[in-house]
Amino acid sequence: METDQLIFFFSALGAFNGFLLSFYFALTAERKRFSNYFLAFLLLTLSIRIIKSVFFFFNPQLAGVFIQIGLSACILIGPFLYLYLRRSIRNIHGKWVIHILPFFIGITILGIYYPYVEHRVVWSRWIVKGIYLQWLIYVLLSFKFIRPFFQKLFNKKEKLSNLDIWLLSIFSGVAFIWLAYTIGSYTSYIVGALSFSFVLYLIILLFVFRSNKKTTFFEEKEKYKNKEIDTDTIERIKTKLSKVKDKELFLQPNISLAEVARELVIPPHTLSQYLNDHLGKSFSNFINELRIEKAKELLLSNSMYTIEGLGYESGFNSKSTFHTTFKKMTGLTPAEYREKERK
User: For a Cys staple, 73 with which of 24, 48, 90, 315, CB 3.0–4.6 Å?
Assistant: First the structure.
């Protein structure tokens, strides 16, 4: 009896921590970073599935509606994992709705016409197996984003960054939970403790990374190496750097050095060193200059936006930052610049 209470406590605590983390990423952590919403919903759907397992294990008479919700949540775990890794690693925008809406509508319709309470056999034999198969397919699709990190693990010449470890942990944790549920019928249905370990690991990573003042949670900061950048690398960076403007990466309010470096396939410290040594500017200044140029274009060509709105459209995440940066780089306020140029 005491053992059962301990299992229940640790299993339920894992799900509870998952709920807390999902709200943290959705509302607090780097809120302008869109990929965090995918992570928040990934943790939320996992937690719903876990809490259903915990209560059903200790109460087989659990209401059928609650069981149906827990099982249905699984259909979104794979898509949210795929979207989070795709956005975080490849910085691919758009078309996320097609990975979520069809499955959400489909499982809702199934739940209405074939409710779990009245069709337990159908759910056990077909629907649940289909959901787990879809989850596996998305795990396999997600592996293409994470594969370079696994290669680094076996390559002694390359070192995993904090961000690499974080993304690798997310992928491995979700894959491990899928495996635990899949083999649950052969071992034990209670996988809450297993899921708790996964979520607890996320919490540990969160506070370890955030306690390091030299890095942000989602950004790896490397010191310059004591050597000059070779000529070939300089030419390659020159060529690739135009992508930042062409693809308008600077419009992302919280774009980081690590994200730009990943997009250009350049080590972050090399890109930072190039900007400082060859352009004489920091990464933030480089990005802000592009944003100010964009703001100038909008100020003169589009009267639909307010001046404050132009700041957000140019990639700034606050009105005060936009005004301060604009005045610093041009010597004029946005309003003064518009009036001067239109005379």
Answer: 48
Dihedral-angle region of residue 221 (phi above 0 means left; psi in -120 to 50 means alpha; beta otherwise): beta
pTM: 0.58
Distance CA(276)–CA(264), nearest Å, equals: 17
The answer to whether position 223 is within a domain reads no
How many domains, the chain? 2
The answer to whether residue 79 is domain-embedded is yes
Question: Which of the four pLDDT bands, split at 50, 70 and 90, describes residue 78?
Answer: very high
Please, what is the average pLDDT of the chain? 76
The one-letter code for the residue type at 5 is: Q
69 — pLDDT class (breaks 50, 70, 90): confident
As given in the structure block, the two tokens for residue 281 are: 């500017």
pLDDT of 226 over the 50 cut: no
Arithmetic mean of pLDDT, 306-318: 81
Name which residue leads in pLDDT, 262 or 65. Answer: 262
User: Does residue 197 carry a pLDDT above 60?
Assistant: no
Measured CA to CA, the distance from residue 298 to residue 13 in angstroms comes to 50
Mean pLDDT calculated for residue range 259-266:
85
**Domain of residue 321, residue span:** 231-342
Q: Are residues 35 and 88 in the same domain?
A: yes
